[in-house]
Amino acid sequence: MTTSGEAGHIDSRYAWMRLLVALALGTIGSVGMWSFVVALPAVQADFGIARGEASLPYTLTMIGFGVGGIVMGRLADRFGIVLPVVIGGILLGAGYVLSGFAGGIGQFALAQGLLGFGSAATFGPLMSDISHWFARRRGIAVALTSCGNYLAGTIWPPIIQYFISTEGWRPTQIGIGLVCVATILPLVLLMRRRAPSQHSTASSETAAGARASLGISSNALMVLLFVAGLACCVAMSMPQAHIVAYCGDLGYGPARGAEMLSMMLGFGLISRIAGGFIADRIGGVATLLISSGLQGVALFLYLQYDGLISLYVISALFGLFQGSIVPMYAIIIREYFPQREAGTRLGFVLMATLVGMALGGWMSGWIFDLTGSYQAAFLNGLGWNLVNVSVMIWLLFRPGRRVVHG
Q1: Are 181 and 323 in the same domain?
Q2: Could you tell me if 285 and 396 are in contact, meaning their C-beta atoms sit under 8 angstroms apart?
Q3: CA within 20 to 30 Å of 179's CA: 28, 71, 95, 332, which one?
């Protein structure tokens, strides 16, 4: 049984304070996901290497983030959120300092892998942790926590670019690492209170019953969510990874494409918050189905219109439609699995989304090389998006379906 004292923490003033701390940690820690995009030209010039070789650190960053999400999620499930975030902060500091002293692209790439691993602690595990502190407002709480990743992509790049241009990329890397350690470690101490004990026998039985109502095992459900996460992000990566190149091919120039990418990110923040409100009313599966369906609509519009103004409008719509997709997996995990498993299981699903982004970005480029056009790549994205929609429809309309509340 959950005591009245514990129950008082759920949806409480402390829970909202904890949410603000989680958002701050996500905004700081997610710098590891965005900094190399800004530093790439300077790093390439310093090491005197080709663009393909210079892109290796980004790949290792994504691998580190994917593996780190699982490991850090497991640590959060067993020991609470403080330990993985402390480890993540230390790894961010070490990774940035090591990258600042790297003597070659190989050393730099390994340091970037460390950064990805450390950044993972301030994304999935934080979403999982905050989901334990809310019942009535769980959707918006998780959505707001996930916004830290997008806020980092908005706030950090201009700051990093300024210091790279004035101080050089190496001092900038070292400086970022010191800032991460100096801010993340004190902030996470505000989250030392353990989550209310919601993983009682009754709660676990309710979660098991909700999953059993689907008529599938927990492992089968995880496979479905893995496939859904992979498919939605293969589709999502098409505009995000190639809009700049697409605008260049159309004669609008890469600067216009960069502006459209920025619009996607900005409207994605709106989408995440709105998706949280909607999930509190209709649940994670239904919200993800709506978002994924609308993402397919935006991909279809890319096929129909390629005028400059049209692309700006469609890119804004794409961001508005897709931003809430990834946070919904945290809601779904909490609906169908007990608290003690949430971090680990969410880590696996988030890894699927990263694999989807990486696969989709490569696949779209390969299709372009094969056909000489992005039209087939957009169609490919639509096909993968349909896979995600199909999984969500199956889950939503499964006979006897019910979910965990609270």
Answers
A1: no
A2: yes
A3: 71
Say which amino acid occupies 110: L
What's the pTM value of the predicted model, to 2 decimals? 0.80
Which CATH number belongs to the domain containing residue 23 in this structure? 1.20.1250.20
Residues 40, 256: Cα–Cα separation, whole Å: 20
Closest CA to 94 of 119, 114, 77, 120: 114
Residue 68: closest CA among 105, 103, 129, 120: 120
CA distance 232 to 328: 12
Measured at the CA of 58, the angle between CA 73 and CA 261, to 5 degrees, comes to: 95
* Distances in whole angstroms, Cα of residue 66 to Cα of each of 145, 189, 221, 386, 395: 18, 25, 20, 24, 25
- 207 & 304 share domain: yes
Could you tell me which of 334, 328, 383 has the C-alpha nearest to residue 350? 328
Cα distance from N-terminal residue to C-terminal residue, the chain: 14
Selected residue with higher pLDDT from 318 and 8? 318
Answer whether 66's CB lies under 8 Å from 355's CB: yes
Distance CA 184, CA 88 (A): 9
Same domain? 138 vs 276? no
pLDDT tens column, 156-205: 888 888 898 899 999 999 999 999 999 999 999 999 988 776 544 444 55
Domain span at residue 46 reads 4-191
Is residue 21 within 8 Å of 133, Cβ to Cβ?
no
pLDDT tens per residue, range 283-342: 889 999 999 999 999 999 999 999 999 999 999 999 999 988 998 998 898 888 887 788
